[in-house]
Specification:
about 5% helix; globular
Length: about 130
Amino acid sequence: MEAAPAVTYIASGSHIEGRISGETEVSIDGSLNGVVELGGRFAIGRRGQIQGDVTACSVRVAGRVKGNVRATEKIHLASSGSIMGDVAAPLVSIAEGGTSKGMIEAGGTVPNGLSSVARSSRQPAEPGDS
């Protein structure tokens, strides 16, 4: 019998400054000013607020994110959610009412660095580039 995966919950009213990393699932209804790097799932509840980049296996956003969001499997933006930053995942879904302001890259595989993808898509072509 396999043990259930560990889940970390950050309650409303909690505030974290820094980095969240690991292989577990994390759900946040509080606020984070920092970076998320998870091998598991990451969920931002309706009251959750993130200021910083998020990278995880899958991401569900029902709260607010100001930063880039990257997932190796999928990103779901709920009707109450908003992302102000670039989004990249093989599968991206946005519910009616969900808002995103930034580049969205969906399909295929996700490149290693979202920031390099976002930068390259915004920079004008250099002379001689084709």
